[in-house]
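User: My instructor asked us to take a sequence, write out its structure as tokens, and then describe one feature of it. I'm not sure where to start. Here is the sequence I was given:
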Amino acid sequence: MSKRRELEEHVRTLGEIEGIMGAMKNLALMESHKLNRLLNTQQRVVSDIETAGRDFLSFYPGFLPSLSGHELYLVIGTERGFCGEFNERLLSALDRHVRTVDDRNPSIFVVGRKLFQRAEQRYRLVESVEGATVAEEVPSILGRVIDQVRAISSRQFPKGSVPVTVVAHDASTEAVVVRSLRPFHADSTAADTKPFPPRLTLPPADFFAQLVDLYLFSILNEIFYSALMAESRARLAHLEAALRRLEGTRAEMLRKRNLLRQEEITEEIEVLMLSTLETSHRQ
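Assistant: Let's start with the prediction itself. The structure tokens for your sequence are:
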């Protein structure tokens, strides 16, 4: 009897866990839909800014930005768990890249508490911040990231900008992308097809400085939204697999519980039959 009751208690606990994980799965699904809309809008913004930047540099090539100093790797991981090997794949891609470029002392800036716990065991980190858990947190987290990148840049290269390479999951390709943030490149054909330079309301230097700031902010928004969307998808897949295993375990325990109950019923019947036989003999 006690063993059956233990199984029933375990089955009840598994049912509660299944309910919690089901709610987490639904939240991840809702977050993916929301991020999909935001990401599509952000990608159009980045595309328009890139077009404007290429057009400007075709007529003002002297404004191409100069990046110096030691490369800074911005690795965007997760703040929460339940997403499988999401963070490990990021670090594996980073490992391969730094070996390829022969960077033996990389400067690593990680985003996300779960990634930080893994990365600090393998690299010397120059900075870390918490990661976003929902889309609404991206702007504030991104503001902190930009402030820290500027601080690192001013320490390493006071008169310029440090080159930044982002390592993050890309939602469209469902793979880890190592992306160097180099703002714009000149379109050599634009000056031939467009005889007049763009009409500006600001001096070219001021215009381009503001355009670069807007571009970096916009493309980082796109990268963060894409990484968070990939995380939501990974969490959704991980939770679905965990729920299938949980359902299988619960079904097996229910089967064992039913077998134990059948044994108990059989024992009860045997006791009743023996009791009836003893009563008959005494009569």
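For the description part of your assignment, you could build on this observation: DSSP finds six helices and five strands in the chain. Try explaining in your own words what that tells you about the chain.
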